[in-house]
Amino acid sequence: MSLVDQFGSSTDAVKKPKFLCAPTNKLDEDPTAPTHPDHLTVYQIKNTVNPSFPTNITVIDQFTPERHLGRCEEASMSFPSDREAPERDATDARRVHDRSFRVLQERGHIRYAEFIPVIGVTLADQFGSMTVTVKKPKFLCNPVDKNGEDPMAPTHPVHLLCYQIKQTDVVKFAKRTGLFINNQFGPETLDAKKPALLCVPATMP
Length: 205
What we know:
The protein is built from one helix and 15 strands. By secondary structure, it is mainly beta. The protein has one domain (about 1-115, about 140-160, about 175-195). The strands form three sheets. Strands 3, 4, 5, 6, 7, 8, 9, 10, 12 and 15 form a ten-stranded antiparallel beta sheet that branches. The chain has a three-stranded antiparallel beta sheet with strand order 2-1-11, with no helix packed on it. Strand 1 (about 1-5) and strand 2 (about 10) form a beta hairpin.
C-alpha cells in the first residue's frame, strides 16, 4: 500500500488491527458524539525499508499551546469504520485516513518539554462514560493519500495527537466482545479491552 503525507512517501504492508477509536464527548464539548456512526480502526503497518522522518516537530492542541516533539517513527495506519456498515460517501471516507507516528521524546534534546498530565478529563462514548488522566503524547497522526485516492491529503491542516490515558474511576471499563466493524478491508469482529488513547485535533504551524 502506497502512503503519501507531508513527511514524504512510503510503501507499507497493513497488518493486524491495533485500536478501535470511537467518537467521544470530551469534557461535554459534543454531547452528540456517542451517536456518530463513523469510527477509526487503527492497523499496525510495516515498511521493509526504514524511512527517515523529521525531528523537532511543533504541535498545538487544546492540552498544550505549543509542544515540541522529539523524534517520530512510523507506527500505524487508521481507516474509517462503521458499526453497522451503512453506505458511506467515498470522499468523506478518504478524508479521515491518517498515518500515525510513534512519538519519541528525547530528554537530551534542547527543545524537549515534559508534558504535565491533565487530570479529571471526562469522556463519554457509545460504551459509557468515564474520567481519565491524560498522560504523555503517544502518536502523531497525519492526513495521508493512500494509494492515490486523495492527492490533497498531505496539505490538510488538521492532524491528530493521541495521548495515553488512564481511567481513574473506581468502577473500571468492562471489556466488550464481538464488536462488528466494516471498512475497505472488509467486515471484522473485534474486542474492546480497555481505554488506551485519547486523540484530539492538532495543528502543525
